[in-house]
């Protein structure tokens, strides 16, 4: 596959040298409450810390979603059952257990296996037969990062692309440039056995001359730029688009203007264009948006049974001030042998303060928060995953990731607004699928007594 246009070079990584000392842990307590999500899988919020007042202190959902993709480099085994609501309830329902059953083109099957996929994931088993049906069918699907949904819709796009035709045939909308790049990487990997296939990024900063026509067969971009390319600038002929994908719908509608722009783009497409929409959650706002964008769809939802995080034991330390929290944090980390730890803070301000205070103690830690460029954040996560950093101080931007198997401890200096997400992170991170081994819990209990 030919190289894609529109890439932006990465930014240098900023790191903070930081550690943690030993001290008294006599006020450590074991907290046994279980945390439950609501019907849509969203975390029910606890009382938030008084520090969290300014909107600018909150991490944006797009950054969280991007980092999910960056952290989850491998497929996550999803135990949730999938519920399929077909457009035609009388039509037979198919699922597949191997990619060979899909009768893919040889180059595409070769690309799938080159990416390391041995068999379809849970979402792919049910979504691919619908997306690859003849004629193609529209789909609204719920799926989290790491479950193979990007590969699924990329497979659908590549199945309909005619590499010999030099004009855009597939259009994918992402909330941000960085998320678009992640999708682009999957397309490049899966489509590498199509030498004529090209990819373009319709994002701000990718300047083209007025009147120029796009020859790339697949275009990925943000709604505002794609709308300009289709309407004002006429770079893309929307009437020739065969597949329209709207990824990260829940993130999309959280960004001002994206919802309206996406609907305007959809209305420019031909009636026989296949419409595919993916979202991690199915709140009412997402449903209303999906119904406007995807007519007459098949629907795939995750059956979320009542979930509790039984594998995690939670401990808490009673503190009356920020300084006491800091001292307790230092004491806890210093008293326990930990391979790696993640320390979550509610706000960027608190994370920066904590990093600076730990730095004064002469310890070494990485800081990850929203004022950093996404490329910087990705580099910090990669270093942490490789074990080059032992402590990661972060905000909600890393609340839903996984895939750093050596992490045994999650420390929350403030009340956990995203406790379930971070707890799930802890379950996924630990090598034996538990935050605490029995020995680790015994040692904490002894310290507490």
TrEMBL record:
Residues 97-125 form the DEAD-box RNA helicase Q domain. The keyword Nucleotide-binding applies. SMART domains: DEXDc (SM00487), HELICc (SM00490). Its EC number is 3.6.4.13. It holds the Pfam family Helicase_C. Residues 130-300 form the Helicase ATP-binding domain. A motif (Q motif) lies at residues 97-125. Keywords: ATP-binding, Helicase, Hydrolase, Nucleotide-binding. One of its GO terms (molecular function) is hydrolase activity. InterPro entries: DEAD/DEAH_box_helicase_dom (IPR011545), Helicase_ATP-bd (IPR014001), Helicase_C-like (IPR001650), P-loop_NTPase (IPR027417), RNA_helicase_DEAD_Q_motif (IPR014014). The keyword ATP-binding applies. It is an enzyme of class 3 (hydrolase). Residues 311-449 form the Helicase C-terminal domain. PANTHER family: ATP-DEPENDENT RNA HELICASE DBP3 (PTHR47958). This is RNA helicase. It comes from Rhinopithecus bieti.
């Amino acid at each position: 596959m030919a190289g894609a246009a529109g890439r932006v070079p990465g930014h240098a990584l900023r790191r903070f040298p930081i550690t943690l000392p030993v001290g008294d842990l006599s006020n450590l307590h074991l907290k046994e409450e279980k945390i439950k999500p609501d019907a849509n899988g969203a975390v029910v919020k606890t009382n938030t810390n008084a520090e969290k007042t300014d909107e600018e202190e909150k991490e944006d959902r797009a950054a969280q979603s991007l980092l999910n993709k960056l952290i989850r480099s491998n497929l996550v085994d999803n135990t949730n059952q999938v519920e399929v609501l077909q457009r035609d309830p009388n039509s037979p329902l198919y699922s597949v257990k191997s990619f060979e059953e899909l009768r893919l083109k040889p180059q595409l099957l070769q690309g799938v296996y080159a990416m390391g996929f041995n068999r379809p994931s849970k979402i792919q088993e049910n979504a691919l037969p619908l997306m690859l049906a003849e004629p193609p069918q529209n789909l609204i699907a719920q799926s989290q990062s790491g479950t193979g949904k990007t590969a699924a819709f990329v497979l659908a796009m590549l199945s309909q692309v005619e590499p010999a035709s030099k004009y855009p045939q597939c259009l994918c909308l992402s909330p941000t440039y960085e998320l678009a790049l992640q999708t682009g990487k999957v397309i490049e990997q899966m489509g590498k056995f199509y030498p004529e296939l090209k990819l373009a990024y319709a994002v701000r900063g990718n300047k083209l001359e007025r009147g120029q026509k796009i020859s790339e067969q697949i275009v990925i971009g943000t709604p505002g730029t794609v709308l300009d390319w289709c309407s004002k600038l006429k770079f893309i002929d929307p009437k020739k688009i065969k597949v329209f994908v709207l990824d990260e719908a829940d993130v999309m509608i959280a960004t001002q203007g994206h919802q309206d722009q996406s609907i305007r783009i959809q209305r420019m497409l031909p009636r026989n264009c296949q419409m595919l929409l993916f979202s991690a959650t199915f709140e009412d706002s997402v449903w209303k948006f999906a119904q406007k964008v995807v007519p007459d769809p098949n629907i795939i939802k995750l059956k979320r049974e009542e979930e509790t995080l039984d594998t995690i034991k939670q401990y808490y330390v009673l503190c009356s001030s920020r300084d006491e929290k800091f001292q307790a944090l230092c004491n806890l980390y210093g008293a326990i042998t930990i391979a790696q730890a993640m320390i979550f803070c509610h706000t960027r301000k608190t994370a920066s303060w904590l990093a600076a205070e730990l730095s004064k103690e002469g310890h070494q830690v990485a800081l990850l928060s929203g004022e950093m460029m996404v490329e910087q954040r990705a580099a910090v996560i990669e270093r942490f995953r490789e074990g080059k950093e032992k402590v990661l101080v972060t905000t909600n931007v890393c609340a839903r990731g996984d895939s750093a198997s050596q992490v045994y401890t999650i420390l929350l200096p403030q009340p956990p607004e995203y406790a379930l997400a971070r707890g799930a992170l802890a379950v996924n991170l630990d090598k034996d699928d538990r935050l605490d081994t029995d020995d680790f819990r015994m040692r904490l209990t002894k310290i507490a007594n």
